[in-house]
Amino acid sequence: MHKTRNFFLTVIGLIWAIIVLSPFYLVVVNSSKKAVDITLNPFALPDGLGQFAENLSNVIGNPNFSFYSSLTWSALVTVVTLTLLILLSSMAAWVLCRNKTWWSSMLFMMFIATMIIPFQAVMLPLLTVFRTIQEITGIQMLQSFWGLIFAYMGFGAPLTIFVLHGFIKNIPFELEQSASIDGCSPAGTFFRIIFPLLRPVQVTLLILNGIWIWNDFLLPLIMLGLSGRVKTLPVAVQSLYGTYIRQWDLILTAAFLAMIPAVTLFIFAQKYIIKGMVEGAIKG
Amino acid sequence: MGVEGKNIQRDITSALFLLPMVIAFLFTILIPFAVGVFYTFTDWTGLRYTEIVGLQNYATIFRQNDYVYSLIITVVFTLLSMLLVNVASFALALLCTSDIRVNNFCRASFFMPNMIGGLVLGYVWQFVFNQALTPFVFEKTMLSDPNLALFAIVIVFTWQYAGYIMMIYITGLQTIPEAIIEASGIDGASAARTLFKVKIPLIANTFTVCVFLTLVNSFKIFDLNFALTSGAPARIVGGRPVSSTEFLALNIYQTSIGRNLFALGQAKAVIFFILLAAVALTQVWISKKSEVEL
Question: Cβ contact (<8 Å) for B167 and A151?
């Protein structure tokens, strides 16, 4: 009874897994075919890898997609933002948590309250505000790498600070007091005592924010435009799609290339990724 | 250094530590939001405004039928997805917590679509519906019929999101002590009875979290909508054509960036915000209430 039950569950599980994975199969096999062969039979395996190499070189060198450049920009945006966001948010969350004044709790409340603001409600005036900053200070904010990073820091701030705040609250204050008595400066106390203790929650935030930034589309689209110098991968996919509508050999090859980094990372670090995304969702 | 000196040093450190994130937060969220609300009462063009027009933008929204139509189908989409995602993900969570040997493989496979952004997935699924399922499985593509196209988005959203929500249900199911399940087995409860009378009540909080997470995320859907249908196909409502699958976020984008009506688009975005805030407050209210009951 138990055995037959498990047998059926295994079959159901595997069938469902095949259904879930089949779109990925279609991407892989069809990025190795000519457009004609895709239309004739999208399910069949490709004849060989020759066409794959040709599709690859067509897409990689395509000026709309410019794969290596957009891959590099995406990686840079993600890595630089994550580093700054996690470091600076840890610092801010620590002050907000340990500073027991009215303005500190008000600031914290403000961070939390804005978590319900959807991106659409700020995206249009954001462009105006950034353009104004540009005119006043001369710092390039739109169509700019650092401008995009600045925006991601702002949008990542509420959730990141909120999660860190909750974690720091549970670190005993006596640890800091004894460091301070031993002559440690406030900044020293933070970097030597508190910061290393934040490691587990920082990993969670790294994953959660990393997947969001890597895949994010609308913010880089409106800030960078489709044909700017700086372009992230999702924007590059859109740019290619817009130029070669329904040329599936090119689009699927581009999709294949765009998927590879995240899928590879997932295969090697699935435990951490799943844990990070679930914890982040529950706390947020 | 005296106590005074220490305090000053502490205040300076606090200020320096807070400053970068506060500045980023101010200029990307707080100021744009405040300015944005103000713009809805003007004739803002995206670059400048010349006069205050009062509630005219809001009046225009309700005079034209596209936003109200978009609101209705977004609510339909949200409710359908919420139902389907939660039923599917809870069933998958039960499957993946049973002692079958493939359950790690299943968990990873079901979760995998969440690694890819909605834009790329939208184009992949456009291919699946238009080139693979049609003409080989169905005669006509789902994406060419207004009702079926909406359902197609529900399918893709569920395909992606169920694996994520499943993981939250799994986390919930794992908090139930083994002893309680065993005890109900010994008392002669059937598997179904244990499920409905023991497991589900014990993870009621997980259900609340998952239901609201799907509600909010399907209500805010953009990337997938943009790539899969872009609002197509058209449908005639009240004698005028509307985009049949244009959900609110996409409608705001098309109004402002697509058709250059920034003040109108911003007013739509403010209404969008109010609706989402109402959902969020409801969630807070419900979880507060259930805490009191416990």
Answer: no
Q: For A13, which of B14, B36, B95 is closest by C-beta distance? A: B95
Asked if B222 lies within 8 A of A255 by C-beta distance, the reply is no
| Second-level CATH architecture of B63-293 | Orthogonal Bundle (1.10)
- Domain residue extents for chain B: 63-293
Name the residue facing A17 among B106, B125, B269 (closest C-beta): B106
Backbone phi and psi for residue A42, each to the nearest 5 degrees, phi listed first: -70, -15
- Residue A98's domain comprises 63-240
We report the CATH number of the domain holding residue A155 as 1.10.3720.10
Per DSSP (E only), the strands in chain A are: none
Chain B: nearest CA to A120, how far in angstroms?
6
Mutate to test the interface with A, among B10, B17, B104, B274 (most CBs of A within 10 A): B17
| Structural domain count of chain A | 1
Q: What pTM did the predictor assign?
A: 0.94
pLDDT per residue as tens digits for the range A129-153: 999 999 999 999 999 999 999 999 9
